[in-house]
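quick one, two chains, predict together pls
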Amino acid sequence: MEGEVAQFALMGKYIGAGLATMGLGGAGIGVGHIAGNFLAGALRNPSAAPSQMANLFVGIAFAEALGIFSFLVALLLMFAV
Amino acid sequence: MATGTEEQVVEGAEHAASGLAIHPMDQFIVKPLFGTGPVEWYTVTNVTLWMGIAILVVFGLFVLATRHRGIIPSRLQSVAELFYGFIHNMVEEVTGHEGAKFFPYVMTLFVFIFFANILGLIPMSFTTTSHVAVTAVLALAVFLTVTLVGFYRKGIGFLSMFWVSSAPLLLRPILAVIELISYFVRPLSHSIRLGGNLMAGHAVIKVFAGFAGAMGIASVVPIAAIAGIYGLELLVASVQAYVFTILTCVYLRDAVGEAHH
């Protein structure tokens, strides 16, 4: 009985970790959106593109940060809980 | 700092017997370099070794290669100048003229992370920056620097960055809470972005290596995939070093630059 409860808890832990990784899909959408819009803008005005590279990477990093939190939850479930 | 790595050791050892022949997480195990004792904070481990190698490479590139400086630079000197110019432009552009005195710090961060990432891609080596314990120290140092410099230069006025004066008065307290949370979450996202990207990339390579070991003659396919992912990892290694430093510059702008809210 004890072992079954532990197994059940383990199952919940792994399912939860798997579900938490779905949040990274949102980060993927966000990063793709930024990069796609940058490319669209850069093709319209290629001369302005190099000066905006830093903004591109900062935008990607901020969009990615929120996905990283779900990755963190997955890691916590796998290794810390 | 020690608990994170110890947990990974336990997890790696636990699962090593089951599943794939090459467990993707085994590469992140922190081992003592000499003997098989427990890992204490003073133990010389493979992390210590590869951090030391990264520092030696940086030293070699920036001190030894540029010792005989010439008007016509040697090949290594051009590489060093390329790094120097790239980071100097970035600091001036993002942090402003006032922030340029933080150039040595930002440069140190960039070259250390860059070479730790690149050296980690050598087969059988150890990626120090894949451990959140390592990147968290770097990110916390940035966080403390920004906070202390901000209070030193602006005094209590540094807190005005949480009070968004361009927003309606009713919204400002709510925004202040959100800004405060996002400020304290910075070191977390800063460190996990670097560590997580590196760890995930290396784990993917090892997963494909596990497929290659189990597929016999058809293992040509996963080996070709590893070659492709390796190229992607080279890109990730340099881009993440760049992202870490440019975010450092953005955070420093809050501390030294004029208010931009």
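Chain A is about 85% helix and 0% strand.
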